């Protein structure tokens, strides 16, 4: 797998935001390569990686984003980022306080 996208996204985020103390990822090839880990190390960011086979660690967030996509994003057309943000706020209000789980 090519890591260029992930490395560029990481560098862009680090330019825009303060560096975290710790960065957690899974052990995908795009995250374990020297380009990605080197970018973190250059900035003194500690690296935390999930253990192999720990797919259950993020199952809850994976299910959440599946719900967001299928119950909101794929059903509506958002013309602007502002509309998307408003739609997501509306959805999370529904998700957290009304939606049966």
Which descriptors apply to this entry?
2 domains, 2 strands, Nucleotidyltransferase, domain 5, two-stranded parallel ribbon, 101 residues
Topology:
Elements: H1 4-16, E1 22-25, H2 29-32, H3 34-42, E2 46-49, H4 59-71, H5 81-97
Parallel strand pairs: 1-2
Strand order of the largest sheet: 1-2
**Low-pLDDT regions:** none
Structural class: mainly alpha
How large is the radius of gyration?
17 Å
Helix-strand pattern, N to C?
HEHHEHH
Number of domains: 2
Task: Write a brief caption for the model.
This protein is mainly alpha-helical and 101 residues long. Helices cover 55% and strands 8% of the residues.
Structure explained in plain terms:
It is a single chain. The protein is mainly alpha-helical and 101 residues long. The chain has two domains: 4-53, Nucleotidyltransferase, domain 5 (2-Layer Sandwich); 57-97, no CATH class. It has helices at 4-16, 29-32, 34-42, 59-71, 81-97, and strands at 22-25, 46-49. The longest helix has 17 residues, at 81-97.
């Amino acid at each position: 797998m090519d890591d260029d996208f992930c490395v560029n996204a990481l560098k862009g985020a680090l330019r825009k935001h303060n560096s975290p103390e710790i960065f957690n990822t899974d052990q995908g090839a795009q995250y374990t390569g020297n380009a990605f880990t080197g970018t973190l190390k250059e900035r003194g960011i500690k690296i935390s990686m999930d253990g192999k086979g720990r797919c259950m660690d993020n199952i809850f967030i994976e299910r959440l984003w599946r719900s967001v996509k299928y119950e909101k994003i794929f059903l509506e057309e958002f013309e602007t980022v502002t509309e998307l943000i408003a739609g997501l706020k509306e959805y999370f209000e529904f998700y957290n306080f009304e939606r049966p789980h």
